[in-house]
Amino acid sequence: MSKTLHLENIKKVQKEIDSKKVLIKNAVMRQRYHFMAEEGWLNDPNGLIFFRGKYHFFYQHNPYNSFWGAMHWGHAVSEDLLHWEYLPVALAPSEAYDDHKEGGCFSGSAIEHDGKLFLIYTGTTNYGDGFVQTQCVAYSEDGIHFEKYEKNPVITAPEGYEPANFRDPKVWEHDGMFYLVCGAKKDNLAKALLYRSKNLLDWEYVNVMAESRGELGYMFECPDFFQIGDKCVLMFSPMGLHERTCVYLVGDMDYNTGKFYHTTMGEIDWGFDYYAPQSFLDAKGRRLIVGWANAWDWMPFWKDWGPTYKENWCGSFAIPREVRLMPDNTLQFIPVEELKSLRTDERIRYGVEVESEPVDISAGDGVAYESRLVLDLERTTAEKVVLELRSDGDLKSVVYLDLKHGQMTFDRNHSDGWSRGQTKSPLKLMDKKLLDIHLFSDQSSIEVFGSQYQTNHSCNVFASDAQNKNTVQALGGQAYFSSIISYGLERAIR
Length: 494
Known about the structure:
The chain is mostly beta strands and 494 residues long.
């Protein structure tokens, strides 16, 4: 292993970042309060952790271009999840096991041990016979500068598993032992493989923790595992399940056998642009998750990397969400309370009756704003409620709340002249007196939370500042809102 080469590559990366940061100063699509890289390409969140009094975000990063390439780990820290200080790149391709133009330092996670910060990641390379993915370790005394373990890789794919599909380790501690779960593929079916260690360096295979028999796709990307209350959660982004891109399973873990038994299954987000979420526990005792506000399928399909590619960047994270366990063992995903500190221009209305004439729901400049609507279902006769968001009269994103058929639809076919498609999900209305809808709009994205934060749609929308009209209307009757509260949101990212 060449420690010197790793340091040289990181220095090279930093020069590239510094030289290209100036190119995006006038970018018009940059987010205002969603986390982004300084420049270049960003995808999966990695190594999310609260360490020495700060939130650490690592992220898959190609600093050399604004599309996917050889993967590095970018790094930033924050005290409030909103305002970020960028640190030197933590990991760069440098070794035989992770140095390839179509490989690199793929996704992974972080954990503190003996005062050090350990990163466990997937090294991806090609020795000439196809891609090989292995699990590797890096560590740091200060949480900023990382050294790769001299005996990497520490885990290789078990016999019978595809070496090209063995990735994304998530590590945690339980009863004095370290465990990690990796996504894997065998016989064209997804597997979650469990490993354990006493020291984070020497690992033994335990069992197939969970698997697909066809109903959960052919690969679990970015698996994550955590305990919440008296239950355990396994979440992942399954490949091969069409519109289902973020699945969670709630159940019980048997550490003696290494088996996870789930009784509840749900969706974290139904939108086009929410993928590979990773969880961590913060100092407040909250289980937080952060997802990549993008996905793989739309890019090859449209033969285009998106409008931001031309601005020398691509990719952001969705807003952080707190995970909460409901009495029926389903999960809520609630925007973190820190977002309230960005609020301005409060507008509150109670007892709002809405018919076919649109009612304004925006605040601030209508681009970066938050709106919360509480619909009284007992007093509502409308068959459908329609939210027109980021509109200039011609271009607009439309959210349909179909009360008659119990469905939410996000339509971005006319959002910006580039985006396409509709996302659809069930809308939970059974035994409900109220339907709450919570909206977060930023420069290039809209996140819609509904049904007590259990029916969520996140979509990128590359709308201009002139698209700042946001309204709600009712079709087939009247909609009665007990309250409509809106706020402008100040800029947090520079």
